[in-house]
Design a protein that fits this description.
Shape of chain A: globular
Distance between the termini of chain A: 14 Å
Strand content of chain A: 15-25%
Number of domains of chain A: 2
Number of strands of chain B: 0
Largest sheet of chain B: none
Shape of chain B: globular
Oligomer: heterodimer
Structural class of chain B: mainly alpha
Largest sheet of chain A: 9 strands, mixed
Number of helices of chain B: 11
Helix content of chain A: 25-40%
Strand content of chain B: under 5%
């Protein structure tokens, strides 16, 4: 892969230049491609608001719905880059699925000393209640959200695997629909793969494991942060959107009941609630949003649960370190995509390096998510650094440390000015009959010029992600 | 019940037809416009053939602008909206000013966005106004007969477009049931034989295209206004 090929924005620029040169009205053509979307950004954001493209956030114990700010300048991934990412992501997710199967059955990878048991059984994502359960078709992570960043030299790094209930696909999905309405010329003149097949891909994934019955997307309700996504994906997959009060277990089968009391068997449930709240009879007894005894139905093979409960053991920040080793172990292949350089203070050698270099590393608490529990060493005072060192020594399993990746800045529009901001990419990998990577993804960016944190809950925005077809 | 003259009946019926023509055409047009982004030149011709409107366009691009906004093009959405307005403006007494306002707003949206570089975004407002118009009709049009006549026009037009544009037979059947249910409630003359024949055509055919012309012929003669 040439260095140029790695840079989406450069490829787009060259493409525009090429198109402009071909055109008899070169300048006009280029301007249309460049400005078509930006010109209508406000209208697109208005439409996003109209369609309720929001996320929920709790502040001071109060629920607030916020618009997810959309920036009209797309992130562009070249055809070559996507081919590379596609191979690497499929490889990674296939290995993670094999890991989950292994952990909840033979645990061979532990026996062979590739992954230490300390990192498996103390993980909050490991659920002993899932031991011995093989989900339909042996698939654990049906929808995987893999977070990546691109370094300034073009190299891609995996930042995080999300194998529980990764959210975010609905945002670029609806944004693309509106962008095409706003500026059709932009899409006529650029070879962008249409990403609006996500609903179909998700439906295929659900149908693949359906053990017989209706398809349900289960939401904890409208006060969930991702409720827009739950309802939108239900619409796009022809699934029933249901809450726990619509669902019940009878004689080891899961049913959906309507207002007349009629019941329909559920064959596959894409649940958008966390493992611990899924079944009060198995997990958190005080959960009011779960379905009592659903785990018995699942264990009996009478319903497919997407994603499988217990997946958290594989996307734990501590386990992340071992994913390249998993790829070699299960697939006998060299990992295609790289992890960000990571250290586990659990290992003495790594701990020493971390303690000696804390001021230039980023420290992550493995129990936290959503951009929380992330500390940049260079932002800490002397005293804070010392406290952190003591904490790492005391609770070495609790933290990982990573080199700070100077990742690529991406242009966004900020009050009419084009400015550069940090951005990541969540790629969606869908595991059905075969493993596929959605030719798009959620690009999140920080609006704060001094921040690396792109999470929506911390004020970040999103962009459409274009994958070029040639 | 107020007196409805033949002229008023004509206006009410065609107000229903033209507003529906604009509404359904825009909704369909979203998909057509989107598919034309990647479609080869001349793709619009299929649409013209289906609607049986003359092909006066030089290509996809001209079709996309002329078909929406052209004042000179009698088949444009703007022209159809103007005809809806022409029918509505003489019905203030029957409709009420509140209802009439939404027809005016829809027409104004066309007129103020003729040079827009993002026409589809603007057309969303037309859809909104037309939906508000029909919502207001139920609330503000006092005379039930007036409402029924307008709705008959709406369902006839919707069926016409659905048949021409290859909507699923299930959708056409649904609209037929609405029409059949509504038409009995009016005091208009209607051709019961053609209505029954249309029911037979719809029930017999699994695909709309199979009985396309026959269905359109029946539909055309069910209601005779003027």
């Amino acid at each position: 892969m040439s260095k140029e090929a790695k840079f989406g924005f450069l490829a787009l620029f060259l493409l525009k230049k090429d198109l402009a040169e071909q055109s008899t009205q070169g300048e006009e053509s280029e301007a249309l491609i460049m400005n078509g979307l930006v010109e209508h950004a406000e209208s697109i954001n208005r439409l996003l608001a109209r369609y309720g493209v929001k996320f929920g956030i709790y502040k001071n114990n109060e629920f607030h719905e916020q618009l997810f700010p959309f920036d009209a300048i797309p992130r562009v991934i070249t055809h070559e880059d996507f081919q590379y990412l596609e191979k690497g992501l499929i490889q990674r997710v296939d290995a993670l699925n094999l890991f989950l199967k292994d952990i909840y059955s033979d645990k061979q990878i532990i026996k062979d000393g590739v992954v230490p048991e300390e990192f498996v059984f103390v993980s909050s994502g490991y659920l002993p209640q899932c031991e011995g359960i093989c989900p339909p078709k042996g698939i654990y992570s049906h929808i995987s959200g893999i977070d990546l960043v691109q370094e300034k030299d073009g190299e891609w790094y995996i930042l995080e695997d999300n194998l529980r209930i990764p959210s975010g696909a609905s945002y670029p999905l609806i944004a693309r629909e509106l962008c095409r309405r706003a500026s059709p010329l932009t899409f006529r003149n650029t070879p962008v793969i249409d990403n609006r097949d996500y609903g179909r891909l998700l439906k295929e994934v659900m149908d693949n494991v359906n053990v017989g019955g209706i398809k349900v997307i289960m939401t904890p309700g409208r006060y969930n942060a991702a409720y827009f996504e739950h309802s939108y994906l239900a619409e796009k997959t022809d699934s029933e959107l249901a809450m726990n009060t619509d669902l019940f277990v009878e004689k080891n089968y899961l049913y959906h009941k309507d207002y007349m009391g009629n019941k329909q068997k559920v064959g596959v449930i894409y649940r958008r609630i966390s493992d611990e709240y899924l079944d009060p009879m198995t997990f958190e007894a005080e959960s009011l949003i779960g379905i009592p005894n659903i785990m018995d139905v699942y264990r009996a093979g009478n319903v497919a649960i997407i994603n499988a409960p217990g997946n958290g053991v594989a996307d734990d920040k501590g386990i992340y370190y071992f994913v390249p080793k998993m790829i070699e172990y299960y697939l006998h292949e060299m990992p295609i995509l790289k992890n960000a350089p990571t250290y586990l203070p659990f290992y003495e050698e790594d701990r020493k390096y971390v303690l000696d270099n804390l001021e230039k590393l980023v420290i992550k608490d493995v129990a936290e998510a959503g951009g929380y529990g992330v500390v940049f060493g260079d932002k800490l005072s002397k005293e804070e650094l010392e406290n952190m060192k003591q904490l790492i020594i005391k609770e070495s399993r609790r933290f990982i440390a990573q080199e700070v990746i100077d990742f690529l800045d991406i242009d966004i529009m900020d009050q009419g000015e084009k400015v550069a901001r940090k951005a990541d990419l969540r790629a969606f990998v869908l595991s059905g009959k075969e493993t596929k990577v959605w030719a798009s993804g959620l690009t999140r960016f920080t609006r704060n010029p001094d921040s690396f944190i792109v999470n929506s809950s911390q004020g970040g925005g999103f962009k459409d992600t274009w994958v070029l077809s040639r | 019940m107020g007196i409805i003259s033949i002229n008023k009946l004509d206006n009410l019926y065609w107000l229903g037809r033209y507003t529906e023509r604009v509404y359904t055409s825009i909704r369909k047009f979203y998909r057509i416009y989107d598919s034309m982004i990647e479609a080869p030149e001349g793709e619009y011709k299929i649409y013209c053939e289906k609607l049986n409107i003359p092909d006066i366009y030089s290509g996809n691009t001209e079709f996309l602008t002329s078909y929406i906004f052209s004042k000179e093009n009698p088949d444009s959405l703007y022209s159809n909206m103007s005809r809806a307005y022409d029918n509505a403006i003489v019905l203030r007494e029957e409709l009420s000013s509140n209802v009439l306002a939404y027809v005016q707003l829809a027409l104004d949206t066309f007129e103020t966005n003729m040079t827009s570089r993002a026409p589809l975004l603007e057309l969303q407002s037309v859809i909104d106004y037309l939906l508000a118009f029909w919502g207001c009709v139920d609330d503000y049009v006092e005379d039930e007969d007036c409402r029924n006549i307008m709705k008959c026009g709406k369902y006839v037009e919707r069926m016409d477009l659905y048949i021409r544009l290859d909507y699923h037979i299930r959708d056409i059947e649904k609209e037929f049931n609405k029409l059949a249910n509504r038409i009995h409630k009016t005091h208009m003359y209607y051709n019961i034989e053609k209505l029954d024949k249309l029911a037979d055509v719809i029930n017999e055919k699994s695909e709309a295209s199979a009985g396309y012309q026959e269905a359109l012929n029946c539909l055309d003669g069910i209601i005779e206004v003027k």
